[in-house]
Amino acid sequence: STCRVLALSGSLRHASFNTALARAAQSLAPQGMDIEVATLHGIPLYDGDTEAGEGIPAAVQQLKAQILNADALLMVTPEYNNGVPGVFKNGIDWLSRADMKAIFAKRPTGIIGASMSGFGTVSSQAAWLPTLKLLGVTLYSGGSVLVSRAQNAFNAEGALTDEATRKNLGAYLSGFHEFVRLSKAAKSSAQ
Ligand code: FNR
């Protein structure tokens, strides 16, 4: 059956390279993999008083439903000051309050990213690791996509035009597909 993947962009910017990378993944998805692109729009800053009062915000609940509806999560992270962008961390923090076990525990998860420096989110991807470990995701480590100098890899319309990057992303997605397929098969045989 088709593997459904939710690609979550960690940038709110309309012309975001990371959202563009998520869309490129969607268009390069191998046969048998269906990628939906999601964003963090509408999620407020985490506030324990909001949580205790109104509860989990609607935008968080909606994203939770999208994640639960997919077989795997593909995080598409920018890099700010060598670390994880606050916007993205905030979204994951809210989601962890919404139902950490159901949303993250054992969920097949990949992490890719694009940045404007020569290092292509290597630092932010590494900075995510302690959080992903705590959340208990099953992290794909069979490849990496670190899009450096993103301003040269995408055209003005946000299409991924750099051939080497397209090839690497395609190879990453093939490996990720196999990883998600195996985890789905293991899950269904355990039931
Ligand atoms: C950046 N940028 C950046 N790039 C990088 O490669 N390493 C870094 O440490 C940083 N630091 C950083 C801090 C802050 C506050 C901003 C706003 C930006 C540049 C970053 O790669 C660039 O803005 C990307 O375009 C961000 O991703 P999106 O929004 O295009 O997806």
Provide a descriptive summary of the structure in words:
With 191 residues, this protein is an alpha/beta fold. It has a single domain, classed as Flavodoxin domain (Rossmann fold, 3-Layer(aba) Sandwich). Strands 1, 2, 3, 4, 5 and 6 form a six-stranded parallel sheet that branches. The radius of gyration is 16 Å and the shape is globular. The chain binds ligand FNR. The site of ligand FNR has 14 residues, from helix 1.
Map the helices and strands.
Layout: E1 3-9, H1 17-28, E2 33-38, H2 48-53, H3 58-68, E3 72-76, H4 86-104, E4 108-114, H5 122-135, E5 138-139, E6 146-147, H6 150-153, H7 163-190
Parallel strand pairs: 1-2, 1-3, 3-4, 4-5, 4-6
Which terms would index this structure?
globular; alpha/beta; six-stranded parallel sheet; 191 residues; Rossmann fold
Number of domains: 1
**Annotated CATH homologous superfamily:** Flavodoxin domain
Give the topology string: H per helix, E per strand: EHEHHEHEHEEHH
% residues in beta strands: 15-25%
Query: What is the CATH level 1 assignment?
Result: Alpha Beta
Detail the poorly predicted runs: none
Helical amount: 40-55%
How many helices in DSSP terms?
7
Class by SSE composition: alpha/beta
Topology-level CATH name: Rossmann fold
How far apart the termini lie comes to: 17 Å
Shape: globular
The whole-angstrom Rg is 16 Å
Condensed summary:
The chain has 191 residues and is α/β, with parallel strands linked by helices. It contains 7 helices and 6 strands.
